[in-house]
Amino acid sequence: MPEDLHLKIRNLEPSDYPQLKELMDRVYDDIGGAWPEHTILKLMTDIPEGQICLIDHDRIVGVALSVQVDYQRFSNPHTYDDLISKAETIINNKKGDALYGLDVLIHPDYRGFRLGRRLYEARKEFCRQRNLRAILAGGRIPNYYKHADEMSPAEYFEAVKNKRIYDPILTFQLSNDFQVTRVLKKYLPEDEKSQGFATLLEWRNIFYEPQSSVIETRKRDVRIGAIQWQMREVESVEELLQQVEYFIDALSDYQSDFALFPEFFNAPLMGLSPDQRNQHAAIRFLASYTERFKVEMSKMALSYNINVITGSMPIFEDDVLYNVTYLCRRDGTVEMQKKIHITPHERRDWIIEGGNELRVFDTDAGRVGILICYDVEFPELARILALQDMDILFVPFWTDTKNGYLRVRHCAQARAIENECYVVICGSCGNLPQVENLDIQYSQAAVFSPSDFSYPHDAVMAETTPNTEMIMFSDLDLDKLTFTRSEGSVNNLKDRRTDLYDLVWKK
Predict the structure, then answer these.
(1) How many domains does the chain divide into?
(2) Where is the CN hydrolase domain (predicted)?
């Protein structure tokens, strides 16, 4: 076993060919040995960054060769000869949208050091840098000849996948996040050990972005703003709307993509109700202003170029009272989300009923969901949204005591972890004893992330001072979510046992 290792990765150079030939002749002695020198030199000319070698001191101990291809062509059945021209040169498609892995080989003396993984990681990084869709490869199955009499290639693959059989190439490919998409016949006829069969392997670049203009590209770095709202006595709806505009203006000045208000943030208007001690009458009085708030806040979203989530407000539909929030996009469109689960207080004192629709909303800054307060305490809702590729979950809430607040907070943080998304919570503070049910509030707005290495150690992106009126900002990287869902320490969404359980929305 080699001692005094001094390893580095670099691109192949023309002067490396004698060493490369010696290595390929030794490793590929059963299928013809090394490529001719002119084949390798052309590869270095056509796509130099795709030819990678691993060096110990001055000795080449590992190599990964690649070529650029058309994904549609080579993600379907093909043979190794489809990559080669008559002059025994490998065809590189400069306009191709995928990388094809030709060879990965490690010197026999250096096996057992997991060096092949280094070459694969370098190849994956090159694929990302080139913004290519995927890495494709035809993988030999050199131990298949030992089992060909008792199982088909597909059965052999399943046995290797389930670790009942070891295959030096397929086992390695599967451990490096490659997926087998099909079995290829007559891929390399001279490969007697594989009996001409190969697996078509694919590693998808989760950061691949199809070519588009900057204007059409969705933002990946998103700034959210939340208003920890002070409940205060008001003399008119105009006064309260002026306060709303003040905060939207302030968030817009900081180039925020979203503004989140708390649940029932405009409840002080109930203090203007002719019969404010009658809770049933007061909440219906408040509902009479909801349409105006929707229209005015939508205008502000358009004017200040910011997506506004309007907290929540009561609304009448067909003589039924609901608790609703609006997403006012900065392009002028408006969407509504009703609260699904109604608290005992809302149901008993205000006669509010729950909605029966739930969806993810597309925006220019990610796919978002909205759950109003109590709804976040029901994990099924957030999971349904997560299965629709939600990036950010907004939770406007209204709690009176700290224990009520902690129910919302802890459940929201759990939703971020189990659904691999960001969660933003925002409530109101202050005392308004002259208005029924507004005498006390407790709030601490916060932004939660998944719990993994690329996020804060406590999975809290930002939080406010408790019970103090203020605004909060947090910058969210949506690409981190993509990486977490695919290559995180754990994969909560991918690892669900759907063979045992499932989640169904009945409506």
Answers:
(1) 2
(2) 222-478
